[in-house]
Each structure stands twice: as C-alpha cells, then as structure tokens.
Write a structure and sequence with these properties.
By secondary structure, this protein is of the alpha/beta class. It has a single domain (4-315), classed as Aldolase class I (TIM Barrel, Alpha-Beta Barrel). It contains eleven helices and ten strands. It has helices spanning 3-12, 28-36, 41-46, 88-103, 114-120, 140-149, 163-167, 185-192, 199-211, 232-242, 270-284; strands at 15-17, 23-25, 53-57, 125-128, 153-158, 175-179, 216-223, 246-251, 287-292, 297-301. It is globular and about 50 Å long. Bound molecules: iron/sulfur cluster. Residues 27, 29-30, 40, 42, 48, 50, 53, 55, 127 line the site of iron/sulfur cluster (SF4).
Length: 321
Amino acid sequence: MGDQDLSTELAGQGYRLVGRHSAVKTCYWTRQSLLYGRDCYKGRFYGIESHRCVQMSPAIDSCNLHCRFCWRNQGWENDEMMAEYDDPETLLDRSVEAQREMLSGFKGEASVPEARWEEARQPRHIAISLTGEPTLYPKMNRFLELCHARGITTFLVTNGTNPDALRHLDPLPTQLYVSVTAPNAAIFRKLTLHDRTDAWARLLESLDIVRALPTRRVVRHTLVQGWNLGWEDQYAELDLRARPEFIEPKGYVYMGKSRQRLSRDHVPSHPAIREFARRLAARVGYRVLDEAPDSKVVLLGLRAEGRYLPGLGPAEAPAAA
Ligand code: SF4
C-alpha cells in the first residue's frame, strides 16, 4: 500500500494526518465525554478527563508486530522509520490544532456545556497509542518534554519490542503502558505474527528495563478467548519481572480491522476477565482495585493510594469502554 493509499484509507477512518508519519483521531470517549459526561475507563481508574484527551500516533506506518486483535490497518508495517522525522514541536502544535478543528462541530450542541467545550480546546492529556509502535519515533523524548512543559500528561503505549528506546526514554511519560499479550513465546508468535525471531526476547528485556523506570508503569494483557486467556502462572512471572504499579487484564473487543482476523467467539466475557484477574492478583500479590465491566477490564495494583493522576480524581459519570 503506497503512502497516498494509506493516507486516503486513514482519512476515511477519521484520522487527521498531522505530519509525514503522524496522525490524530478523535477518540470515541472524547465525544462521549463532551456529549454525555461519560469518560473512558482510564477516567475511572486514573482520573483521565476524556474530553481533554488527544489520541495520536507518531508512527502511523510503522509497527513491528501484526497482532491479530489489533483494530488498526495492517499490511504496510515496517520497522524502518522514514528518512525524515516529524519535528516534535510542530507535531504537538498540529496535534492540538487538529483536535480543536475536529471538536469544533460540538460548539453549541444542546448537550455540550459551553465550559466543557472550552476545556476540550485546552487538551490536558495525550494518549500516544493510536496506531503503530510509537517508540519507533526517534524524537519521542523531545515530544514528551514539550507536552509536559505545556502541562499535558502523556500516556505512552508500547508493545515492548523496542527495549533500546525504553532504555533511553528521557523524560519518561506520565504513565507508561507495556502490552504483554501472551504468556509465552509460542503463543506470542502465533498471536502477534512477529517477523523478528528475537521479538519475545526483546519483550522480556523491556520488562526488566521497565522495572527500574521511575514513573507510573502499567502492564496490560489484552486477552483473546481461545488464544491467550489463562496461563496465569506464566503471566505472573512476566508481571513480577516488571513489577508495575498497575496491571490491566482487558478483554479483546471485536471491532475495526480485527474483525477480518478474529470472530465474536474470541471476545471473553467480563466474568472470565474478572476470574483471570483474581487468579493473577493472587499469584503476584496485587489487589483488585477496580473494574469497568463495559470495557471488560480490571485494575490490579499494589495499593489504592496514588492511582489518580496528580490533581485529578475519579471520573464523575459511570465509566464505559
Ligand atoms: S485515554 Fe484513550 S480511551 Fe481514554 S479518552 Fe484518551 S484516547 Fe480515549
């Protein structure tokens, strides 16, 4: 797929390109939060204000895995970045501007309070997770620095197969997510279809690095019925390697491009996720702190205090997916 095809395909899915390899897309929950005051589960768990959250990626055409459960486009991935990288300052400016433009249509909506719309124009969070592997963007450090300098918190989501980038992250994101999507190398290969023979070893190396990083760290297990749900002993070993503040067992959601690769039968029930979480918590010595059934996710942590981002608290209205 050529660059033009990819840009057209992404624009058709609501992405707004803000650079050669970067894009923003208004999150479903940003709209829900604006219209109905409903925040995403990270609002409930960590205090994220979804109406002030920008969902973006600096790596729209770059990923080194082909996860079957991924909602996004595949078939164009490469782990080589482009010759020229987007300038981080321009990227941040354009991301915020794109968000404002995409939310402009909410002004005057009957159910959108004026004050809330005004707040949405001043993003407070950036979720660097939209698509691709963001740690492949070599100017991530400067981008994080600029976000924090503007009082914007950063959630960086990585698939863990780029340990060198994690080793050199400075500053660290406000919250670092590592996706651990399999209990062992064999299932990892089958589920992520990675083409690097050392992908599993790199993930393990990343978990060791993450253990020592002085920031909020989350290990997320995206669980697919019939593929990687179970094996709690092996997941526990991996989680204890990273010893994160929080663990999120989360059920696969049948949506986007993943529907070409999996079926509804691969969607676990929330009780199945809760049972997995309970068994994992017992093995790693963590507590079950919270859950969001609509999004099939449970929050495990060492302690309840400190789970909300500084200056924030639980989302007002009931959280959802
Ligand atoms: S944290 Fe993620 S799910 Fe929540 S509003 Fe931001 S992009 Fe959406």
